[in-house]
Request: fold
Amino acid sequence: MTDAPLMQARGLTVALPNRAKSKVFGPPPTITLVKSIDLDVARGAAIGLVGESGSGKTTLGRALIRLLPIASGSLLFNGTDIAKAEEGALRPLRPKMQMIFQDPMSSLNPRLKLATILTRPFEAFGVPFPDGSRRDTAARLLDLVGLPTAFVDRYPHELSGGQRQRVGIARAIALEPDFIVADEIVSGLDVSTQAQILILLKELRARMGLTLVFISHDLSVVRALCDELVVLLHGEIVERGPCAEVFEAPKADYTRALIEAVPLPEIDPAWLGAPSAEA
Amino acid sequence: MTTPILTVDHLVVTIKGTPVLRDVSLRVAPGEVHGLVGESGAGKSTIGKAVLGLLPRAAKIAGGYVMFDGVDLVGMGEAERRKLLTKEIALIPQDPMTALNPVKRIGAQIIRPLTRHLGLSKQEARARALSLLGEVAIRDPEGVLERYPHELSGGMRQRVLIAMAFSTTPRLIIADEPTTALDVTVQRQILALIRDLQTRHDAALLFVTHDLGVVAKICDRVTVLHAGRVLEQGSCAQVIEHPHHAYTQALLAATPRFDRPGEVLAPVPAELAASLWKEAASWDAQHPGGAR
Reply:
């Protein structure tokens, strides 16, 4: 069983109501955002999911942990097909799949202290606090992500952006999940803070054997953290493979364009090129 | 260096008595792109706002001056400043969605400043708007004039704002993180467009960004800021490829690069950050109230 991928999608299709085109009567038409995707996520892998806005990377990430309904296809998590599972059937699996959100300010309840925020997952799933008390459990989680344990009494607004993102990570790993989807979690951070978060994720990966799907628009960040790359365009995979191969020799033109568009900190007068018309 | 069009000299800005810019000096010549780079809170946007006269009410210019083409912008009256800002100095903002009025068509938004500030007739302004949209490589200028902002993509909206920024043929443009919200391929197009227009108009460009990669691609000169202080200033090639200051070196070491996967990422060392803040505090102690 250990050789089987932790997550396996076959023909995974996600279609959501298109509210922009909603009608006065009757349900709105649906729009297919992720089209028949096959994806294997091996245990312990870190896969970078890249693509531009509208490529479906966030939709796919959310569908993988069933935060979104799946229109068709199969999705095996640890051997169980969860593509069509009802919330009741998903519930025992939820602690094993977690998400870290882009904006920790809007994903952390501003009225709760970190002690409460970090221990909510245990209460929600009826798991006793592993360290006895709420405070001790929260303190251990804070320590795990490199924050002072005294932060248990702080509120989210008292933290910097990087610190809040660490809290988001601490909450996601509280229940010791097998699988984490991280959606643009370092965009909006200063480079130094970004480096700290990337180092933390690497450490946690090694320590907890996490399997990670890391959604990002920044190819350099993906290269620093992930070992595999999946490139999405219009809801379909245009290229995938080990980072070392894809970055060295991209096969799809789109992948090459994405890589070449990354502005590296080195002088290259030819890089800007002539201005082109809108795409 | 040719005569600078913008001279910021020993500028000190305080907010409620706390300095946010501590003795900042820089010069930008016509035809030159000057990058302002630093982490959040470094004061890079504040410099742009000081030039534009858009500092928040609680902020005070406690020392130094900002000269545009030999005229002091700080001591200038409101009416005079407005006149200058509508014609000579333009802004390309970060977020193209909030900078455009959502309930007005693009056409009305481009045409109004042209009739109002340049005294063009409606027909002349419309013709000008069409040629401007052509200059920013929008394929269907006629159609875009009739659209509302929400009907355009982020890249298109940014093209419209660039067209608006260049519409009054300004001599100085302030771009505040103009590509941060865009996809990388669109960012590249927009940077190429800004650089091309800036060169053709021989305008000076003050380019605010947190991204050293973007600096390397578009700037001629660059100022590295931390806690409102200039840590390093020089040609882009020197600062990016041979940085003198430990902080610039640390920023570069913290920036991941897909072409150097083996390189170990390192955040800015805590001791370095602490010593920089200490330097800022000792500057404050020597300059009570921001006085020089």
Q: What stands out?
A: Chain B touches chain A through 49 residues (CB under 8 Å). Strands of chain B lie at 6-15, 18-28, 33-37, 59-68, 71-72, 89-92, 172-176, 204-209, 221-226, 229-235. Residues 90-169 of chain B form one domain. The CA atoms of residues 32 and 110 of chain B lie 26 Å apart.
